[in-house]
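Check these lines:
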Amino acid sequence: MATYAIGDVHGCFATLERLLAKIGYSPRQDRLWLVGDLVNRGPSSLAVLRWTADQDDERVIAVLGNHDLHLLARAAGLARERRRDTLDEVLAAPDRDDLLAWLAHRPLLHREDGYVLVHAGLLPEWTVGEAEALARQVEGELRGDRSDRLLGTLRDEPPLWRDDLPGAARRRLALAAFTRLRTLVPGKGLCTDFSGPPEQAPDGCLPWFEVPKRQSRGTTLLFGHWAALGYLQKDGIVALDTGCVWGRALTALRLDDGKVFQVGAAEGPMR
């Protein structure tokens, strides 16, 4: 039995199938950890959702990404269609309600055997235990009757972190960090508009994992969301988004021995 962590799929089902064939994936023996953004921008979000939802939840674990949340927000009438959205097939599907309910019950953070799986990152002030507790709080709200309060704020500028941040603001910032974080200005907040390579970041904006005295050091953090990084493994972090939807590659890391597998994008670059 092996466990594989896989980068952002973004509706690229043909590429996912190609990667699963390359690693010799056995649904009865192996496990997959999917780093979020299952959907959007690629051509086959519905196929990716149906395939993932049909797997055993103990064997295929998917955390929520910002595009997955955008799908939930659009379905709830809380977000407008964006220029590169490819979600109409999901929203019109006869099984959409079941798929959306399944998606809404995915975790924001998965912790196991010295690893943490999250879509984007953790604030430097958080220990892993604090981040896990926050994830459970936010997940509870996303699955409850008041999920609109969070889904309606996905594009808002998140508040600054402080230890006594009130509950609603605390959960809103946590959701932004788990699903949108790339760089930040220590003590001043997320650089939410930047998605390029670290060397092009605006003055003062540091990759979240390079902030001095980051409290989550000591645990290996697996994340995606930042295609401009490519595959990166250093100092207890592994970045797994290798730009499949941009026509580059989809990556799997076998956690058992650290072997990396990649396949080129089958769908071609997003327009």
